[in-house]
Structures are given as structure tokens and as C-alpha cells.
Amino acid sequence: MRLTFLGVRGSTPAPGPDFVRYGGHTSCVALTLGSAEVPTLVLDAGTGLRALTPLLGGEAFRGTILVSHLHWDHVQGVPFFGAGDREGSRVHVVVPEQHGQTGRDLLAQLLSPPAFPITPEGLRGSWSFEAAPIGSFVAEGVRVTAVDVVHKGGRTYGYRIDADGVSVAYLPDHAPAAGVGSETLAALTGVDVLIHDAQFLDRERVVADDYAHATITDAIDFSRRIDAGTLVLFHHSPARPDDALDALAAEMDPARVRVAREGMVLEVERVTDRSQSDPR
Ligand SMILES: [Zn+2]
Ligand SMILES: [Zn+2]
Fold first, then answer.
1. What ranges in the chain are assigned the alpha helix state H?
2. Strand 157-163 relative to strand 166-171: parallel, antiparallel, unpaired?
């Protein structure tokens, strides 16, 4: 399983000279599975989704996008996904089930006038939308497990993907300090890679709690709690420039913790040494 990080920011894109090395796009990670040459599974549809089109060699996208929740920074890329919005595409979008609404109607709250010029039906190619309950299902031939996580403003899922003998968990927006359910813990335990919310520094604890996000220490503590192999700090604050992220990376044990960067490619390997030493 290969992970390609296409957008690593939270909240809003972060353009400008101070954000060149870690990138300014919001949340999007593409997964290339088995012997496939191109990604077929995508985690979130932030503005980073735009960067998937050039990776597909001119072909239309055929695959599934798992959306963690419907905040702007996780869905804004949908109508700008060129390889999806064209003839020949097949795009299945999974969003968290809530309020008894269909997946199409949940997405249409953001993707329809007056919020946006077109509705989901205005996307070219073949699109389908699903409001999925928590639990396990098969997407693009691999096992996906959706779990509830604590965040604010609408239902939020974390996803675990098991493929090619390895596993990855994706929790871009998560406030573990507010409590973690036992089912969520059980479903995520033992993953080889954990991609986790790292929007706030420890000294920003008050804001982190206010917006139901994680601090760096929360992310590290949670990765130990679920006995994760490699922790990838993700969903960086749009106010965190490259130099500050370099400083953060310098505090971490590079064998245990990676700081997500736009364009970063991670081949997921089975982690056998899960020693509980401090990852910092
Ligand atoms: Zn977010
Ligand atoms: Zn959010």
C-alpha cells in the first residue's frame, strides 16, 4: 500500500512563500493498492484532490473517496477534481451517515446554489454518493472500517484500511482528549501507520479543546494508546509556516514519527517493533 499525501493542511488552504515546503492544500491522501499503478482509494476531498489529476496519466479516475466529515477543508476539492469531473470517470463518495439524509443530499448542502454554482448532478462522468454507517465494508476490493471519533459540528469518522497485509488509520480531525470510545480503540489498535490530527501545539491547548482538535502530545499519546507503528502528524494549522514544522520534525524520532508534507510518498510496511519508547 502506497500513501501519497496531496494536501496536509487543516481549516483552509495556506498559500504563500512560507508554506512552500509542506504545502498549502487541505486534507487529501491517495492510496495505491496491490499491483495497481494509480490510486483508487482516496481519503478526504480537500483542495489537495486537485493534485490527484496529474498523477493519473491523463486517465479518468475510477475509485472511491472516503470523506471523514463534511467540513469545507475535507470536501472543497470535489468540484475541482478534473480526473473525476469528466467523461469516463467512476467516482463513489462515502460520507458519514447522519440526520437520515442521503449522501447526495449531505454533500449538496455545500455543493448547490447559492453556496456553489452546480449541484452533484452537474459533475460529469459517473458519480455516486453514500451515507455509510459505522462498521466494516469493502471498497475497491479492500476492507475499510469506519469508526466514530470526537470532533465538533457534524458527525466525524476515522477510517481504517486493511490492504496488502498492512493497515493504515486516518483521523484528520479528532479530539482524543475529550474521550475515545472502546469500539473505536479496538478497531484501530495495532495499525502500521496512523495519520492523525496535529493541528495545535501543546501551548495552544485551549483553542484545540475549543475546536475539538488534537495537540501534538494528544496525537503522540493516542498513537501509543492504539499501539500504532508509525505516526504521521497531519492537518497542520494554516498558520504554521515551514520553519515551525521543521522545528516540530526536529523534536521527533524520525523512525517513529513523520510530519506530513505535500507530495510525500509513504510505502506502508508491516511494523514489528512497537517498543513503547518516547517517540520524541
Ligand atoms: Zn479539518
Ligand atoms: Zn473538521
1. 72-75, 103-108, 182-188, 205-210, 216-225, 242-251
2. antiparallel
Q: Which ligand is nearest to the CA of 47?
A: 1
Phi, psi at residue 217, to the nearest 5°?
-65, -40
Q: Are 106 and 70 in contact (CB under 8 A)?
A: yes
Q: Which ligand is nearest to the CA of 70?
A: 2
Residues 91-136 pLDDT 10s: 999 999 999 999 999 999 999 999 999 999 999 999 999 999 999 9
Out of 3.40.50.1820, 3.30.40.10, 3.60.15.10, 1.10.260.40, which CATH number does the structure's domain 2-267 have?
3.60.15.10
Centre of ligand 1 to C-alpha 100, Å, is 23
Q: Which residues pair with 161 in a beta bridge?
A: 144, 168
Q: How far apart are CA 148 and CA 141, in angstroms?
A: 23
- Whether the predicted model's global pTM rises above the 0.85 cut: yes
| Gap from CA of 43 to ligand 2 centroid (Å) | 14
Q: Are 39 and 4 in contact (CB under 8 A)?
A: yes
**Residue-range domain boundaries for the chain:** 2-267
In degrees rounded to 5, what are phi and psi of residue 119? -100, 175
H helices of 112-181, in order, are none
Distance 58 CA to ligand 2 centre (A): 32
